[in-house]
Specification:
about 160 residues, alpha+beta, two-stranded antiparallel ribbon, 3 helices, 4 strands, rod-shaped, disordered N terminus
């Protein structure tokens, strides 16, 4: 009885091998289709430094534009305070008017510089993003046969 059990185990083990062999021959019969022993390992896609730099410069440019908008609004607020506390005909201001004029001029200069930095940052970022070299797409085909079922996988990095 133990002999019949052994032959049954051998038959079960042999059947998938016959299927695998038939699959290998069937795949080999079609030109252009190859069976890869180990799955192809693609490394992580190589990141280019230009897009990262472009994003950082773009973020700084947008921050500059934000600062320019806020300081410009505050400068206009100080201008309104100065108009309330200064006489346009006599060209005389009280203490609050003088302080508002000084603060408004400082905020105006900061706003102008921030607009310049923001514009250069956004423009340079757009230039770097538009002129960055495109990464090549990596595609691999992996066919795995584990004895019972053939498997195919398409691996792509974009």
């Amino acid at each position: 009885m133990s002999g019949s059990q052994t032959s049954t185990a051998v038959r079960r083990h042999c059947r998938p091998v016959v299927r695998v062999t038939a699959l290998v021959f069937a795949i080999g019969a079609y030109p252009g289709i190859a069976l890869a022993d180990p799955p192809l390992e693609l490394g992580p896609p190589v990141s280019e430094p230009a897009p990262i730099t472009a994003y950082v410069i773009g973020a700084l440019g947008l921050s500059g534009i934000s600062v320019a908008g806020v300081t410009g609004f505050l400068a206009m607020n100080q201008q309104g305070i100065a108009e309330d506390h200064c006489s346009p005909t006599l060209r005389v201001c009280d203490g609050a008017g003088r302080q508002a004029n000084e603060t408004g001029r400082t905020l105006r200069d900061i706003s102008t510089a921030a607009w310049i930095v923001g514009g250069i940052g956004v423009g340079l970022s757009a230039y770097l993003l538009l002129t960055a070299p495109s990464r090549p797409n990596q595609v691999a085909l992996s066919v795995t046969v584990d004895g019972a079922q053939p498997k195919a996988a398409l691996v792509a990095h974009f």
